[in-house]
């Protein structure tokens, strides 16, 4: 008992140490009570607007119809309170509007959560007199950087204070990260932490999920003119428990399995909030149909929409959750459901060896039917994850069936869909003109490819299509998808093209972080290849989410590939250290799992030689090191000396090691 206590204490202390490194980059607030940082703009007669900003005292007085927009300097979330000192009339009202982007700042409306129109302001009937007026919990705004306070009558209103109670990541100690990343490239550092923070905003109290009040009731062709706005609220309970991971902070505030195929790993390397991930995954399995099918999205999304790929993403979620938690009991509990779900997927596999997709809902790309390359690559990936889990659980029947099925998919896809002259896979065999970003990125990620030269060809071809704002997804029109871009980035690393991976992160995520229309703190869900903040699948630009977990790929990718820390079995009982530093000269990175801390630190000189390299893994674990082109000896903290052979050393024990 005492030992267990000290063990836990040590684990907590070591986690504190790990996350505390570079904490100055953390964007999550220190306190949950937030005060505006700056005045962004004033309209009408307002006295001393700045007194409501941080570090100021005094009263802001609204005289007649007027408004002030405040800037929190980063995307935040929460419940607004206005502290009223005095009002001149019982007819007085004070409204607040929210916007993530400065494009949608408006004293008469918020940005949008529905397919069309803009969201209504929240109005406080401050005519009642002095006191605090707080928004109802269902009017918790999931993401905004700009808050506009508006007075719509001739009254004079004195305001003492405006605060926002930060509601995101309700069970987290907001700045207690379990992971960190630092390099000599400031942009990459900021991108890593913005990704981590984006996922914190997407983690919510599940009692305040999207109620989808307007789904199906507004025709997206309608033009709603101001000040006609639509009411909004979030009060649908989307999962069990008290915290859940959703797709987007402002919208949809729902559990989406596809999004988790990116966000889950970025959470693992930053906050390790397994509790929220588990609640979300369980909510999807609670909706499994009798035939094994898993939902496109969690409740209350209509269960009539069927998706071959999102179904598979839930299975990938199970595999990832197990990989990073090592929670064997949980895996066993869901194994029957996992197998039934694979059964549903396999019912689409035809004589060609590939799945013929008829359940076409996906990440809003078009043409997801037939022998589609993305769907088959994801199926191949999910089957191989399943094979590993089956072997772990001793389920030899499943293991044999799935590995044979997977091999057939691989050979059929390469026979029918690979186009050697272009160096890319076709979308399906009925077309020669579309070579999708998603299917080609997934083919590399899933190891559907058969050779290094094939992976190089894909990496080169994808790179040749980049535009000024990032990597296009032609399967979704004129779209840059930071979701699929995350898979493409990883694909470049797997193809041993680290420079392309770094270049894409700097180009695309650099744009998303630094452009003045963005929040400079969280990542947008999608935009146009011409750089406009229009996401082709939507008609309403104000609806685009600026904090979407599926856009946070670089956070885990920098940790797994630039620093090169990869877990190869449950919670890191085996691991691999294989940095691909590209042009980086300094990297310090790490994260913790239930087994302990994993970290890597290296320095390289101008010619790319390591001048120092150390790493640490938990005692009792085992792993390999891969440092291509490096000669030398690794020395362990218990005096072990292991020579690198062709840059590789295998079977190292956990502990601290350094390169001599
Ligand atoms: C102030 O009013 C002008 C003109 O109506 C409008 O363009 C601007 O966005 C408003 N600014 C704020 C901060 O409300
Ligand atoms: C509003 O609440 C704050 C914090 O609890 C308190 O300091 C303040 O006095 C309240 N304002 C009024 C007018 O009661
Ligand atoms: C101000 O807004 C409130 C809430 O929408 C509304 O009830 C009131 O009629 C408005 N007052 C004026 C003068 O427009
Ligand atoms: C919306 O506006 C567009 C462009 O002004 C117009 O073509 C369209 O007919 C309008 N739609 C409706 C439903 O009024
Ligand atoms: C959610 O809020 C709406 C709008 O106020 C209300 O009609 C509905 O009953 C609420 N639902 C729950 C579960 O509280
Ligand atoms: C919540 O937990 C109950 C009891 O374990 C379970 O039956 C139900 O399916 C769960 N619901 C969700 C949405 O996870
Ligand atoms: C095959 O791919 C093309 C391009 O994406 C698409 O237009 C077509 O609908 C796809 N076929 C099926 C059966 O989905
Ligand atoms: C896929 O299945 C559908 C529905 O059964 C069928 O119409 C279509 O021809 C099949 N596509 C291929 C490429 O076999
Ligand atoms: C795998 O199992 C399914 C369903 O039981 C069966 O239809 C299929 O033929 C099996 N495939 C292989 C390769 O054994
Ligand atoms: C990828 O597939 C090839 C066979 O095409 C295999 O030799 C290789 O081991 C696989 N790589 C991984 C990482 O599984
Ligand atoms: C980098 O270090 C290597 C090995 O010590 C050395 O040969 C090389 O000259 C160094 N390069 C620079 C630019 O210092």
Automatic annotation (TrEMBL):
Gene3D superfamilies: 1.50.10.10, Maltose phosphorylase, domain 3. SUPFAM superfamilies: Six-hairpin glycosidases. Residues 565-634 form the Alpha-L-rhamnosidase C-terminal domain. Keywords: Signal. Residues 240-459 form the Alpha-L-rhamnosidase six-hairpin glycosidase domain. Residues 1-19 form the signal peptide. This is Alpha-L-rhamnosidase. The lineage of its organism: Eukaryota, Fungi, Dikarya, Ascomycota, Pezizomycotina.
């Amino acid at each position: 008992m005492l030992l267990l206590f000290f063990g836990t204490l040590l684990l907590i202390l070591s986690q504190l140490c790990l996350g505390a490194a570079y904490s100055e980059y953390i964007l999550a607030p220190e306190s949950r009570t937030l005060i505006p940082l700056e005045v962004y703009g004033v309209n009408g007669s307002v006295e001393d607007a700045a007194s409501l900003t941080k570090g100021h005292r005094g009263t802001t007085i609204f005289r007649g119809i007027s408004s002030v927009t405040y800037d929190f300097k980063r995307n935040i979330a929460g419940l607004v309170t206005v502290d009223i000192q005095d009002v001149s009339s019982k007819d007085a009202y004070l409204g607040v509007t929210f916007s993530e982007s400065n494009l949608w700042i408006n004293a008469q409306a918020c940005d949008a959560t529905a397919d069309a129109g803009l969201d209504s302001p929240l109005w406080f009937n401050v005519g009642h007199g002095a006191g605090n007026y707080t928004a109802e919990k269902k009017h918790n705004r999931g993401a905004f950087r700009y808050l506009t306070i508006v007075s719509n009558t001739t009254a004079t209103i004195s305001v003492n204070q405006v605060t926002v109670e930060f509601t995101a990541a309700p069970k987290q100690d907001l700045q207690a990260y379990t992971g960190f990343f630092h390099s000599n490239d400031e942009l990459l550092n900021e991108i890593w932490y913005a990704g981590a923070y984006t996922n914190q905003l997407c983690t919510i109290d599940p009692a305040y999920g999207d109620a989808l009040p307007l789904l199906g009731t507004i025709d997206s062709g309608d033009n709603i003119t101001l000040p006609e706005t639509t009411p909004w609220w979030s009060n649908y309970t989307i999962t069990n428990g008290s915290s859940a991971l959703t797709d987007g902070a402002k919208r949809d505030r729902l559990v989406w399995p596809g999004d988790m195929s990116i966000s889950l790993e970025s959470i693992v390397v930053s906050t390790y909030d397994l509790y929220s991930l588990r609640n979300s995954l369980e909510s999807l399995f609670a909706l499994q149909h009798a035939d094994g099918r898993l939902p496109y999205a969690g409740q209350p999304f209509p269960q009539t929409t069927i998706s071959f790929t999102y179904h598979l993403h839930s299975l990938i979620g199970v595999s990832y959750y197990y990989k990073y938690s090592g929670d064997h009991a949980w895996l066993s509990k869901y194994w029957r459901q996992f197998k039934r779900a694979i059964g549903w997927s396999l019912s689409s596999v035809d004589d060609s060896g590939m799945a013929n997709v008829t359940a076409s809902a996906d990440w809003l790309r078009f043409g997801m039917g037939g022998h589609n390359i993305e769907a088959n690559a994801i199926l191949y990936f999910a089957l191989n994850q399943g094979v590993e889990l089956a072997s772990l659980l001793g389920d030899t029947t499943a293991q044999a069936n799935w590995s044979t099925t997977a091999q057939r998919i691989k050979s059929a896809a390469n026979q029918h869909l690979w186009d050697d002259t272009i160096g890319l896979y076709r979308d399906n065999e009925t077309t020669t003109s579309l070579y999708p970003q998603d299917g080609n990125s997934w083919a590399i990620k899933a190891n559907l490819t058969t050779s290094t030269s094939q992976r190089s060809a894909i990496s080169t071809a994808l790179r040749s299509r980049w535009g000024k704002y990032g990597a296009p997804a032609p399967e979704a029109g004129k779209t840059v998808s930071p979701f699929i871009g995350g898979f493409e980035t990883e694909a470049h690393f797997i193809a041993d093209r680290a420079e392309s991976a770094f270049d894409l992160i700097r180009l695309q995520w650099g744009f998303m972080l630094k452009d003045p229309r963005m929040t400079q703190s969280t990542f947008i869900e999608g935009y146009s290849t011409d750089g406009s903040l229009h996401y082709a699948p939507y008609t309403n630009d104000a609806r685009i989410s600026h904090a979407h977990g599926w856009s946070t790929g670089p956070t885990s990718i920098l940790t797994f590939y630039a620093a090169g820390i990869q877990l190869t079995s449950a919670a890191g009982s085996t691991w691999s250290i294989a940095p691909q530093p590209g042009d980086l000269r300094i990297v310090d990175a790490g994260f913790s799992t239930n087994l302990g801390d994993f970290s890597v630190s290296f320095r390289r000189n101008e010619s790319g030689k390591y001048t120092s390299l150390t790493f640490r893994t938990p005692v009792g674990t085992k792993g390999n090191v891969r440092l291509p082109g490096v000669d030398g000896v690794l020395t362990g903290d218990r005096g072990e000396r292991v020579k690198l052979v062709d840059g590789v050393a295998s079977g190292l024990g956990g502990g601290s090691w350094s390169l001599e």
